[in-house]
Amino acid sequence: MASGASGASGSRRTAGGVRADLAGRVDQAQMRRANMGLILRHLRAVGGRSRARLAAETGLSKATTSSLIADLAGRGLVTEGETVRGGAVGRPGQTVEVDGRRVCGVGVEVNVAFLALTAADLQGTVLREDVRPLDVPHLTQDQVLDEVADLVGTALTALTTGGFRTVAVGVAAPGIIDPASGDVRFAPNLGWHDVPLATGVAKRLGTGAPPILVENDPKLGVLAEYAGLAGDGVQDVLFITGDVGVGAGIVSGGSLLRGGSGLAGEVGHLALDPAGTPCACGRVGCWETMIGLTPFLQRAAPADDAVHDPAIPLGDRMATLRRRADGGSISVLRALDRIGSGLGLGLSVLVDILDPQIVVLGGYFASFGDHLVPQVSAALAARRMEHGSEPRVTASRLGLMAPSRGGAHLALEGVFEDPTLLPPLAGGTSRTQG
Ligand SMILES: [Zn+2]
User: Fold this and answer.
1) Residues of the chain by 3-state class (helix, strand, coil), percent to 5
2) What one-character-per-residue DSSP string does 146-215 give?
3) Helix 402-417 and helix 28-46, axial crossing angle in degrees, nearest 10
4) Is the pLDDT of residue 389 over 80?
5) What is the whole-number distance in angstroms between the Cα of residue 280 and the centre of ligand 1?
6) How far does residue 286's CA lie from ligand 1's centre (Å)?
7) How far is the CA of 103 from the centre of ligand 1 (A)?
């Protein structure tokens, strides 16, 4: 899942990947790193438990498990808490839990209308959120990269001063991304072609800055939503971003769906209205010309209304429209009705293809959940075939912050794959052999 670029040198990781050499030998240090990651991911998935139970559930020996836990504790990644009884027989053991309260990942979204930043620790606790309105299409690429680096640099300084270790920065951007290089290949709504986002920001932050990873915004949005659904037994999630562009993030069978070239979920340019209006991509009648932020604003308010002003934070503009909808504004309610029917039309196609358990309406759609969710649910129910799937429809609880929250998840994922990315704490109990 985590892939990305560290400055100019791109590197790819595979989850828990242990490579054997040609003779089939597995490097001992690699094996140890993989097993530490296994323990950390298991604790994240199932919660705190005793060493004995951890050993039994992971298939590692008790001695190896104890050694790996000592190493993880020495890096500040796990903690041993209260004493529990493991069962009817045996000595009581201490509960081992994910710690990482001083380990953080930073997520950033480069949106058409703003920059958003979320810093979260290894337990998922949000440490910091910043939103900065930015009219990206009317700025040069260098100006935007300057702003991103300034926002990230300010956060990194504050986090370091607060005693946090930032492991990576995960950047969400719209359009077609090359995760290996961290370049934005094509983002029509930003007017970007081949922009070196990761290397451009890394260069501005200077040496010593954490690695920069880049991924498409709905893919990071769905990771954040999926993390929030963990424990509900949900494995199949369809997340739709509502922005100037429209895109889907898809988790299928518990894994992020990327597709053969990473473009899975580029649903904003589905041809749903052949007699419709031209799209920024050069085609006509794309889904985002029906339900994107621009047609919504055009229908909801006259051109001189302040809700069109890019200098006002998008969240504030949506709150204004939300108040008008609650007050019975005919123009806003009619605009929402058009968005709801367009959403229902496209989602009925996607639900037939993907069979999700839950559909999450993100971005600006989330501000109008109680208007859009019933309408979309009714549209899906009306088209449902006998024995066909009927997913639950819900509005994102993270709203406009979902992609940057997902960026923080992506940044932290590297620690779950290779806990040795974090050096032992001074005075820690880490051991290097096991
Ligand atoms: Zn298009």
Assistant:
1) 45, 25, 35
2) HHHHHHHHHHHHHHHHTT-EEEEEEEEESSEEETTTTEEEEETTTTEEEE-HHHHHHHHH-TTPPPEEEE
3) 140
4) no
5) 6
6) 5
7) 40
How many angstroms does the Cα of residue 250 sit away from the middle of ligand 1? 20
**Ligand 1 mean position, distance from CA 279 (Å):** 5
What distance in angstroms lies between residue 292's CA and the mean position of ligand 1's atoms? 11
Give me the CATH number covering residue 23.
1.10.10.10
- Ligand 1 geometric centre to CA of 403 (Å): 21
Section 378-399 average pLDDT: 87
Distance 247 CA to ligand 1 centre (A): 11
**In the chain, pLDDT over 90 holds for what percent of residues?**
69
| 289 C-alpha to ligand 1 centroid (Å) | 7
Instruction: Tell me the one-letter amino acid at 125.
Output: T
Q: Are residues 327 and 238 in the same domain?
A: yes
Residue with tokens 């040069």: 140
Is the residue at 422 inside a domain?
Answer: no
Containing 361, the helix (H) or strand (E) segment is strand 358-361
Examine residue 432 and state whether it is found in any structural domain, yes or no: no
Amino acid at 308: H
Domain of 177 in residue numbering reads as 103-220+402-417
Q: Which two tokens stand for residue 304?
A: 């001189």
Q: How far is the CA of 278 from the centre of ligand 1 (A)?
A: 8
CA-wise closest residue to 203 among 153, 133, 160, 132 = 153
Under the banding of pLDDT at 50, 70 and 90, the label for residue 329 is very high
The position carrying tokens 């053969």 is: 260
260 and 322 fall within a common domain: yes
Task: Tell me the pLDDT tens digit for each residue of 207-247.
Answer: 989 999 999 999 999 999 998 887 677 889 999 999 888 99
CATH number of the domain that residue 326 is part of = 3.30.420.40
